[in-house]
Amino acid sequence: MTTRERGGLLRSRDFRLLWTGETTSVLGSSIAVVALPLVAVVTLQASTFAVGLLTAVAWLPWLLIGLPAGAWVDRRPKRPVMLICNTLSMLVFLSVPIAAWCGLLTMTQLIVVALAGGVAKVFFNVAYRAYLPSLVDKEQLQEANEKLQGSESAAQIGGPGLAGLLAQGFGAVSGVLADAVSFGISVLCLRSIRHREPERPAKTRSRLRDEIREGLAFVVHDRYLLVLAIFGAISNVALMGYQSIEVVFLARDLGVGPGAVGLVLALAGAGGVFGAALSGKLAAQVGTARSFVLCEAFGALMMLLGPLAQGGWGLVFFVVAGFALSAGVVGSNVLNATFKQRYVPAAMFGRVTASMSVLSFGAIALGGLLGGLLGETAGVRQTLWLMAGLEVFAVFALLFTPIGRCRDFPADRV
């Protein structure tokens, strides 16, 4: 069900429901991104490595089940998959505050919850990205992604601040409870969507292994998708190695309180709204591929300011670095998502998305482990410098690829 009237996607009831549900879920997840490490650091007195491990295991499922998940999702209607995933996420995150109130919470449970939530996220993300092109017209994908990414970034701004306030007022586990509630709201919104995906022509179903191989081959033999996957992997190691120890850096190295940690991360994340809003305008001026590279370069260079942060007014360096990084990453994500949704055939989308995500998202698990390990052994500030340098290197290398040499992403596969 799509809409072409004046006012665009805001007139589509089903898109508004998807938009509302996803934004609410992201708000809860952005609270949990701060709340879970705070629970580990403040409540359980976890080590820096344990905090990095907590981040890593949430992304580990991409490496373990990403490929079969993509092929499996391609065979099925996407909305039911999304409903099941968010229901499971609601239940596992709800177990954290219940265990804490009963005095039974352990670091092992936090890691298991992060892992289970990560499994649900794999299936949800693959289904979600494949579902959107069936919900809106092809020419409205840029607008849809701008709205979704913009509101998600706005939610990510409010999330850390809310996590800090909740932790200050009601304890860190209250933020995890808010995440569970957000998944419940998302489930209600998804259930209310009337749109049903069109029936696909019946065909002889091949073995799952063959379908996985087909998705991998599609990516490996496409020069644009392969570059995006490799760049995403290197970049995600750097970004997650940096982000996995942000709370430790602020809380322990700089002595920032829980409420202020949330505020600093919220201000840093505000750049995402800016990046989402301007990505389409920038693409119209200089081209989609060039805009992608410019967004990534802007964020990477400004990321170098983060390790300069000190207590007090010195936190401005961290906020500016985070703001610019959020703007660059979200802007490039809008352009990247729109390109793939227009470029990849619908019947292949789940497998292609999963094939790329196994490499790029799987690298997030490595980045989380690396950030925690290096932060424990070499020092937190030194690790931030190293990860910022790796991100700059990744963007510099991007200039010498087919994406770095063209003005626009191709509209169709050649």
Automatic annotation (TrEMBL):
<keyword id="KW-0472">Membrane</keyword>
<dbReference type="Pfam" id="PF05977">
    <property type="entry name" value="MFS_3"/>
</dbReference>
<feature type="transmembrane region" description="Helical">
    <location>
        <begin position="224"/>
        <end position="245"/>
    </location>
</feature>
<dbReference type="GO" id="GO:0022857">
    <property type="term" value="F:transmembrane transporter activity"/>
</dbReference>
<feature type="transmembrane region" description="Helical">
    <location>
        <begin position="257"/>
        <end position="279"/>
    </location>
</feature>
<feature type="transmembrane region" description="Helical">
    <location>
        <begin position="49"/>
        <end position="69"/>
    </location>
</feature>
<feature type="transmembrane region" description="Helical">
    <location>
        <begin position="348"/>
        <end position="371"/>
    </location>
</feature>
<feature type="transmembrane region" description="Helical">
    <location>
        <begin position="81"/>
        <end position="101"/>
    </location>
</feature>
<dbReference type="InterPro" id="IPR010290">
    <property type="entry name" value="TM_effector"/>
</dbReference>
<feature type="domain" description="Major facilitator superfamily (MFS) profile">
    <location>
        <begin position="224"/>
        <end position="414"/>
    </location>
</feature>
<dbReference type="GO" id="GO:0005886">
    <property type="term" value="C:plasma membrane"/>
</dbReference>
<feature type="transmembrane region" description="Helical">
    <location>
        <begin position="291"/>
        <end position="309"/>
    </location>
</feature>
<keyword id="KW-1133">Transmembrane helix</keyword>
<keyword id="KW-0812">Transmembrane</keyword>
<feature type="transmembrane region" description="Helical">
    <location>
        <begin position="107"/>
        <end position="128"/>
    </location>
</feature>
<protein>
    <submittedName>
        <fullName>MFS transporter</fullName>
    </submittedName>
</protein>
<keyword id="KW-1003">Cell membrane</keyword>
<feature type="transmembrane region" description="Helical">
    <location>
        <begin position="21"/>
        <end position="43"/>
    </location>
</feature>
<dbReference type="InterPro" id="IPR036259">
    <property type="entry name" value="MFS_trans_sf"/>
</dbReference>
<feature type="transmembrane region" description="Helical">
    <location>
        <begin position="315"/>
        <end position="336"/>
    </location>
</feature>
<feature type="transmembrane region" description="Helical">
    <location>
        <begin position="383"/>
        <end position="403"/>
    </location>
</feature>
<dbReference type="InterPro" id="IPR020846">
    <property type="entry name" value="MFS_dom"/>
</dbReference>
<keyword id="KW-0813">Transport</keyword>
